[in-house]
Write a structure and sequence with these properties.
6 helices
Length: about 150
Amino acid sequence: MTERWLGVQVTGETVTIVDAEIPEKGPVTIVLDETLKLQSGDRAKALCVMYDRLRDYAQDKGIAKAIIKESALSLRGTKKAHLLAAELRGVAIAALGSKCPVIQASKANISRNFGERKADDYIADNSFWDDNILGEMRNGSREAALLILARRK
């Protein structure tokens, strides 16, 4: 049976979602590849709006699972942008978690446990994407899609 999964990548002001149909075997089909921007103005209100958008999307589309890229440690110290992204990531986790199971995955974990290569090598490999993805997806969304592929295998 085919399920719908979301791969989610968060920055300080955006949430990139890759919605894919996951069959038991074969390539996944991209249903949606979109970047949601946090509205300008009052940040608390903007976070509430993002929460509603993500929760409603997961409910309306019957999302079975969401995989969110977790924060990475910064060797140069924590900057404000890192904290803003963490706030928005928390909103995404809560919103999606209210409608489906949420898994947090790090790029380092994917590099250690998915295939023989590092995550960045898969992200850069066009033939890998041709073999594993059906449908349209932006190159900048490959990391979010890799979260799905790594969790599937």
